[in-house]
Amino acid sequence: MAPPVLWQFRFSHFNEKARWALDFKGIPHVRRSLIPGLHLPRVLWLSGQKSLPVLQLDGETIVDSTRIIATLERLKPDPPLYPRNERERALALEDFFDEELGPYIRRALFHELLPDGDYCAALFSEGSGSAARTAYRAAFPVIRVLMKMDMKIDAAGAAKARARVAAALDRLDGELQPSGYLVGERFSVADLAAAALLAPLVFPPEWPYPLPGPLPARAAALSDAFAAHPGVRWVREMYRRHRGTSAALAA
Length: 251
Prior knowledge:
By secondary structure, the protein is α/β, with parallel strands linked by helices.
């Protein structure tokens, strides 16, 4: 049986959700990284939609990080990500962070990152050949405009997004159990989703791909603005305890 294939953006918190689940369960898989903007023909051909991650598994094409995790949970129930006794609570929290955090942290961060075209082009094309990186840098001014339109990135939207991120961090802090986890006594899909989707504020040492140098000043200032929040410290702890070893195979 061929190993699963994860089509991904390296720099993406929703893609990190799927990667982390594969690694947490120790499922050997191949990762194929695409470049934002240039990914569209391949992903449309694979899945009929434009978003990543996409997982190919036993002839099935699975889109969306939440659906991917649900499939992996059926494929390999141990170690579990769905708590036996509080599954609905865990799934409700995963959904909250998917809907009320993920899009907003992306909008807030990209508002600060996109003005630095050289850094963004290097970040988004990381792992590609030199010719692809050069071509992407030349095309990036157009790609930046399309990204801003697609994700509704502007100053007003970014300000509202920062407020939503702050509210999600407060919700996270309020939901934590005495165990230090969001549900019950052990790490679950709720913790994985929250930590992965908050990772762009933190980029903990366990993040699987190196950044192309320090974050630009504006993006670093966004990170610094939330650095003292207990939720950010919690993200670092979840990565330290549970990010573990990669199960990725050579492509």
